[in-house]
Design brief:
The protein is mainly beta. It is built from no helices and 19 strands. It has strands at about 5, 10-15, 25, 25, 40-45, 50-55, 60, 65-70, 80-90, 95-100, 105-110, 120, 130-135, 145-150, 155-160, 160, 165-170, 180, 190. The strands form five sheets. The chain has a five-stranded mixed sheet with strand order 4-8-7-6-5, with no helix packed on it. Strands 13, 14, 15, 16 and 17 form a five-stranded antiparallel sheet that branches. Strands 9-10-11-12 form a four-stranded antiparallel sheet, with no helix packed on it. The radius of gyration is 16 Å and the shape is globular.
Length: about 190
């Protein structure tokens, strides 16, 4: 079982054996070292994945090589990203999302249909404050997700864009959503 943990100052640790042993993920040859805080990580069963955080683009990862690259995944370098808070990619369909905020604190939501090889910006994302989490809808295979937002609402998103109207689940626009989890088609937990 493969896995990653990320943290402050670009600290990245990974495991290839279900957590029995942890290694330091190294910067790929020719890349420029940065010391940015990382907040989100995802990888598939082959160890190919993505990293996000207080960076202006998504970074690519290859755990089998033990390296990462911070030059930017296609479609993310010019997207106005200030911070990526969460990454989700469905293992079967390859459809996925990365969410966060721009330097002007509006939301940024990116969509992939090829397991994170490239991304495109979702329409309607910038009309809301920054996003903090992604929760795939039960059995949607990554086609439709709910985005947790800093305004205390969750917004429906798909490849065609982010909905204009959100569902207020915190009771206050001053309390943001840190995470959303769907346990079945009708039950969602939010913190």
């Amino acid at each position: 079982i493969l896995g990653m943990v990320v943290g402050d100052r670009s600290v990245i640790r990974y495991t290839l054996d279900g957590g029995d042993h942890w290694r330091i993920l190294k910067l790929a040859s020719g890349q420029t070292r940065t010391h940015k805080n990382l907040l989100a990580a995802w990888c598939n069963e082959a160890g190919v994945g993505l990293l996000g955080g207080e960076v202006d683009r998504l970074w690519s990862v290859n755990l089998s090589l033990g390296t990462y690259a911070n030059t930017g995944v296609s479609g993310t370098s010019g997207a106005g990203i200030s911070s990526i808070q969460d990454i989700y990619v469905d293992a079967l369909s390859g459809k996925g999302y990365a969410v966060g905020s721009t330097s002007t604190t509006t939301g940024v939501a990116l969509h992939t249909t090829n397991a994170g090889v490239s991304f495109s910006a979702l329409s309607g994302a910038s009309s809301h404050p920054g996003y903090s989490s992604i929760a795939p809808l039960w059995a949607s295979e990554g086609s439709t997700v709910m985005l947790g937002c800093e305004d205390g609402k969750m917004y429906l998103a798909s490849g065609s864009g982010v909905s204009a109207t959100g569902v207020n689940i915190t009771g206050s626009t001053g309390v943001g959503i840190a995470d959303l989890v769907f346990t079945d088609a009708f039950t969602c937990y939010a913190v």
